[in-house]
Structure formats: structure tokens, C-alpha cells
Amino acid sequence: MRAFALFTATMFGISIPASAQSAVLTLGGPLSTLCYQSALAADSRSSALEGCTRALDEEALATPDRAATYVNRGIVLMSGGRLKEADADFDSALKLNQRLPDGWLNKGFLRLRTGNGREALPLIQKGIDVGAANRALAIFARGVAHEQMGEFGPAYADLKTAQRLAPGWSMPTEYLANYRVSQR
Questions:
Q1: Domains in the chain, ordered, with CATH?
Q2: Residue 110 vs residues 139, 151, 161: alpha-carbon distances, Å
Q3: What is the pLDDT of residue 25?
């Protein structure tokens, strides 16, 4: 079976994303599909977490689907504020597949949530380098990481790129509204 990536960006905070996530569609079984749907909805209820855990424990998942389910359970955990556990699930996914953009991006998103752009930046960049499907979201997140680090030139450039890549997505435009560009 093959895992497919689907990105979402929801529930952004005022200055940093509160929970951007990159859920991964799995074709492993009904529980892993339910886990994907829970991650996509940023569902932090205990029933969502239980469904993801049961998928990992009870379904015979191919390696790509197991990795995807770890990412999805990590998103459910992150949505519930259980950041250390979420990070451990992203690590488990990456142990199974080092080239899984969603694992890298979600590790970066988690660090953005805590205001740690310096740690987020290389993780997000790795997600971009290994083939992030939603480049606008990934580049936007990289821009937020730069912004958190006080690197406003690269932040502005990334936000503009994200805006160009996804003209219908309002988040880059909202962030760019905080910038004033002056000629020197």
C-alpha cells in the first residue's frame, strides 16, 4: 500500500501557527483511515488518539502506512498539547522513512508552536528538500521560522513566495500585512 500526503493549515495563532499540520492519507485499514481523518480535523479527543493507537497496534500496516499513521497520531497529540509525545511519534515515523516530508514538517510545526524558529528551520527545510507536496505551506512555515529568529528579510521573501504559490490562501497575506517595506 502507498501513503499519500495531504497538507492542511488550520487554526493559526496571531503571530505563529498554533497547529499547522501535514496529515498523511493511509490505505492500511479502517483504523488508520480514521486516524488520518482525525489528524486532518486536528481532533484531540481521546477517542481520536485511541483510534490511532489501535491502528498501530492492531492493523497489519505496510511500512509507509505505519510511518504515516505515526505522523497522524503525532498530529492528534500535538492538537491536544501533548508535544513531547507528538515529537516522539514524528521521530518514530522518521525512523521508518527518513524521506517522509510530513514527519520533518510536523516536527518543525511543533517547534513553531513553541516559538522556537531556530530549531524549526532545519526541520522544515528538510521537509522541503525531501519533497513537501504543499510547497506554499512549507515555505510559509519556513518564513515564520525566519520571523521568529528575527531574520525579517528571508521571512518576507518566503511569505511572498507562499503568497504567490497559493494566491487563494489568506495566511501569507495576513502575515505580510505586518511588514513595511522601505527603499534604502
A1: 4-176 (1.25.40.10)
A2: 15, 20, 22
A3: 64
